[in-house]
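Usage example:
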Amino acid sequence: MNIFLVCNAGMSTSILVKKMQEAAAAKSLTDTHIEAFSVEVLDQRAAEADVVLLGPQIRHMKGDVEKILAGRCPVEVINMQDYGMIRGDKVLAKALQLLGKE
Amino acid sequence: MSGVISGFERVMMPLAARISGNKYLLAMRDAFSMLLPFIIVGSFFGIVQWVLLDPWGTVMGANGLNLGAAFTGLDTAGDAYKNSQFVHSMQVIQGLCNNVVTVGFGVFSFLLVAAFAYRLGTIWGGDPFANALTALGAFIIVTPQSVGDVGAFDLSYFGNKAVLTAIIVATVSSKMFIGLSKNKKLTIKMPDTVPPAVANSFAVLMPVFITLFTFTLFSTFLAQMEFMGSKALNDLIYALIQAPLMGFSQGIGFSLLYQGIVWFFWWFGIHGHNVTAAIQNMVYMPAQLANQSGDAAYIFSNGFFEAGLMHVLGLLIAIFLFSKRDSWRAVAKVGFPAMLFNIQEPIAFGLPIVLNPLLLIPYILAPLANTIVGWLAVSAGLVPIFKYVVPWTMPLFFGGTIGTGSLAGGILQLVWLAMDICIYAPFVIAGNKIKDTEEE
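Running the assembly step on the lines above writes:
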């Protein structure tokens, strides 16, 4: 399954992705693909998404993101504290919860 | 205080959503991002051409490392050096580098027409590629096609001076072309046996004809009327809108207002640069392009403001020096590596700076102080203008040095850092008195 993280340029979320991948490896989740990119390219990748997590700095764009995804998969804004502290495990847990896997 | 903040947030959030959700502005932002690789590549070759290879430049010349003299054994001021094979070879390679610079800077507006019209095609529901080609056609029509008596294009109509013309022409042409394409009566229908590629080219025939014909009529009208002494649309738009806009945006007042708004949005945890992207694209990006091509010397450009992104590093160092709060020190350690590359989000959201009343004042004051000091330093001639485009993630000192092509730019960033530490320090010390309530 694909967990996509979206922010303005995909820079700061890419740091979080690395931590999430480590957390996924620790849980031996082999079928999770986690990737970060800019909100501008979301429309090209929307079809592959299973869950989309938004960087809190672009939380005002949640409405637009929901429109792009058109209800295809869940969208959630990442908790600010978890985002700031780069807590990959917590954000991964949130993603899995949204996917109904936990 | 928290009541006031949440009241503000109720205003700011929808405002930010409105601005960044605007499809037209979004398409414009996307278009500029599509061109960013070309600008950075052009800038790279620009640095090679003017800093590295220039026989009298920073590396080869007597005012710099003087490598030219070391290689040839000649005095770089003399004619022997000027006529040497070495200088000749350097100039040939410089010329080749300049061909690439032309792509990123010289014809930037031409590329912008294509990129913007392509994105407008996707949002307004037309064929993006046909729309981009039509817009390029319209742009060529409004551009004078002779220099003197010779059939030629003047490159200056394709560069930084034409950014606004490019935006306007792409918009009007796209609006017309897409509107006309949707009109079924104007579509020439082909029998089903005709291959789709052929049928499609006939389908857009009338919209292309009407769009380009309208632009031709308009262009002829302008050339006959000579408004404000200009025969071409580019000259008119530049004189009427872009030049005053550039002048206005170069004022210290407007620049401070711009920075104040950016960082105020960031304090709410909203991407301030995303919200204000239109200002950046319309004025500070053309300023940067003009600086690089040597047409002008604008103090306030993208490069100038991006060099100042490092002010949050001042906060981190102030925390390492003065903070007694374990939680702050822990966040500072986590966020430090990212902040070296000007990525401030971990600190902004982790500390947090966002919605933290204690840090509101220094978080806005530091970039404003940097702007004022940078303005003074460049105006006084201590630091050259920010000329070369550098990725905004370039670390402190290197960003300023490469961006200005001079060590003075790097030193300016170090001065900024020292100032920012002093600005943040009192607030960090005041923070020591606040107990950690959110410790887990």
